[in-house]
């Protein structure tokens, strides 16, 4: 199963490192990363493969949420299907 | 496929969910209760309870899982069952209160928000069982929490059952009286239909019709905030572009609904039924149908042009939505529950929308007079006449119409009534002071309309 992780907030050092170490711990492979600035905000989007994940979706979401609080960013993880469904005919 | 991040699409979805209140309004599990009928009422109720627990045990859990994994809120999880007047008929009892209590307990046991189906289909006539159910409605709604009731009083093919319409005036008043201490909230759980549909996931009118299968997952979408934001972007553009903009957005919203429906169906191992393409507002800021109409260029919802604006809105939502889902169904129209829509509340408060205009809007695509508070001393014949007008629009136009009206006990026109939560608040709207009594007391049926010579 693939998922999209979005990280939105004020830019700072260590965002990618912080998020990717969480993912590595959970056995999640990063397939692609894209980043952009959205008005004054920084937005990072990751496409990840969860097929070898060692913890449940729920646990991973909780961990990322905590990481987000620590970094002062909003971190969300959602299954990729919803983006494909909504934006592809 | 090589992994590709389409940044714009991803950020658009996130914006829709976070800023524009995109959500799925409901996953409603339809359950047939036909095999629960029993000549012993107690046994029948035990079978109903067991069947609900068996089918719906995981509904709330699965709903929450999907919510988490897809990051899209699912506001309600509900049940819709076969009309109880059909199931209880075999039991030979004189009061169906115990059936309502069974539904209430079972629904609360599985943790759903509402259960619909304390219903009777009496568009042509009443069986003994239908009559018992009708008589049980006020007390059933007053003594249960999550049970919703609906009565179908007319169809295009059968005409209008004016005897039942007369009775509904009394039933609604009595329900209002019995729930007086809670602003007559019981009436918010009662819908009177013409041309009721069998797979509606929305309350208070959801039930599982006789043509439905054993069980089905039906989903109701939402998303007025998303449509409003899209309409805002089409500011000053022609209607052609406006319609196209709404269609595109409706496609996206409905796709999310279809995905959730399919996923719920898979996880519950229950067949997918339909996606209902109605836009459902909530009292939250930015989640209003009235605000969409105003965004189109009307100073205040209810002014001249509102009916046309609503026609364009609903038709465009359907056109966009139809392509996005494999089966559309339910009501698939515009909901204009006055108390549940911040823009409508405001329009009613400043007198720009009236009961008459709301009725006119139902002739194009609004599903009905919904969540409208009227004075508590409104005569029951006037309520019956409001229902008759609305049912006539449904009958003649071959569409579903409904009335969910609340004669708030002890309140006058101009008062504001709080219902709380998703039900919102409503300014009490005035009704005509002229009597409809003699008309309503004629009794009998209004014959089915001619289908030719349409005008």
Structural description of this entry:
The complex is a heterodimer of chains A (89) and B (455). Chain A has 89 residues and is α+β, with helices and mostly antiparallel strands. Chain A has a single domain (2-87), classed as Alpha-Beta Plaits. Chain A is 37% helix and 38% strand. Chain A has a four-stranded antiparallel sheet, with helices on both faces. In chain A, helix 1 packs antiparallel against helix 2. The two termini of chain A are 21 Å apart. In chain B, strand 12 (416-418) and strand 13 (425-427) form a beta hairpin. Chain B folds into two domains: 31-59 and 73-194, Anaerobic Ribonucleotide-triphosphate Reductase Large Chain, CATH 3.20.70.20; 217-446, Anaerobic Ribonucleotide-triphosphate Reductase Large Chain (Alpha-Beta Barrel), CATH 3.20.70.20. In chain B, 43% of the residues lie in helices and 17% in strands. Chain B is of the alpha/beta class. Chain B has helices at 7-18, 41-56, 59-70, 84-87, 97-110, 128-143, 162-178, 224-233, 239-268, 289-295, 306-324, 342-349, 355-362, 380-397, 437-440, and strands spanning 24-31, 74-81, 114-121, 147-155, 159-161, 190-194, 215-221, 272-276, 328-329, 368-375, 401-408, 416-418, 425-427, 445-446. The A-B interface holds A 2, 4, 6, 8, 31-34, 36, 38, 43, 45-47, 57-58, 61, 76-79, 81-83, 85-87, 89 and B 3-7, 9-14, 68-72, 252, 255-256, 258-259, 323.
